[in-house]
Amino acid sequence: MTTPEHSATWSEVHAQPGIWADWAAPLATQAAEVAAWIKTQGFTEIMLAGAGTSAFIGDVLAFAGGNANPRLSAVATTDIVSNPHDCLRDDPKLLVVQFGRSGDSSETVGTLDLLDAAFPNAGRLNITCNPGGALATRAPAGYAAQKVILLPEATHDAGFAMTSSFTTMLLSALACLDDADVAGQLAKLAERAQTLLPELAEMAPKRPARAIFLGSGALKGVAREQALKVLELTAGQTVTSWDGTLGFRHGPKSVITGPDLVVCMIHPDAHTARYDNDVATEIRAQYPQAQVITLGGGGADVDVQATGDARWDAVLYVLAAQVWGVLWSAELGYNIDNPFEGQGNLSRVVAGVTLYPLAS
């Protein structure tokens, strides 16, 4: 058994405010260079790709992709590897952004192989935490344009669960895509996270048998990451579910069976927030045994907002699942840094996937 304070994961969760603050100035410089490069290259579509938690970065950032220029889309590398012709095209106007903590997972390498072999003209932006991984070190086989953003060493989480790697890769990509004061945004987020982390630990709910996470817009991707974080850290002993706030009414609400935990994220946009609050109120009325916790701005049970932009504030919303997941893992008596220790069925870096060559 590992106590929270003696786990790498707990330390990595609490290191995030300092990481963001220290990374702010270097990131602002790199992001400006990458943004200028994207404009110069004339990319018309940016595909945000990763596996697992890394894929959910794209889910958060691409939600507003219809209004973005270039257009943003989110495609998991697990889909790219198995369905390459449905996902990729050999187009110099396409930029594939790959996220990877290790930069060495099977699907990461498989996507690089596919780009080299069949889609050599697509541009590449690799965002990774590991200086020795394929995303950081591998050059395109052809003449495709490529940039690499290597995050601070502290983001290369030692624990099984991705925490600082997820939030800092998300912020790094957003800095390249959003016309905002990068250093100012990270300073606000770091300041709020510094006080929010102990607040979340202090009010942590009792571990539920089921935990449901709901969010609208960009926060739907956060809900997906929250659900995975709790599922991983409790080694499946806490069954989790996630959905869009309004979509939850259309069947998925049947997952609530008793004294479950429902976390409803209240979107910073006032219009969207009305719907989020309505669903939270409805669940409280219909399921009096369930515990409903709202995360949002003023009026929510927990104030997690700093910038008023759901994409930037996403890194604050996800802290709840990170903190509570660690505490619940300890309550179950697991090794927090490796909840599946001794089982051999999950590993920190997914490897051993058979990669099949693409027929010409």
Automatic annotation (TrEMBL):
One of its GO terms (biological process) is carbohydrate derivative metabolic process. The keyword Isomerase applies. Keywords: Isomerase. GO terms for molecular function: carbohydrate derivative binding; isomerase activity. It comes from the Bacteria. GO terms for cellular component: plasma membrane. InterPro entries: GatZ_KbaZ_carbometab, SIS_dom, SIS_dom_sf. Residues 34-185 form the SIS domain. Coiled coil: none annotated. This is Tagatose-6-phosphate ketose isomerase. It comes from Salipiger pallidus.
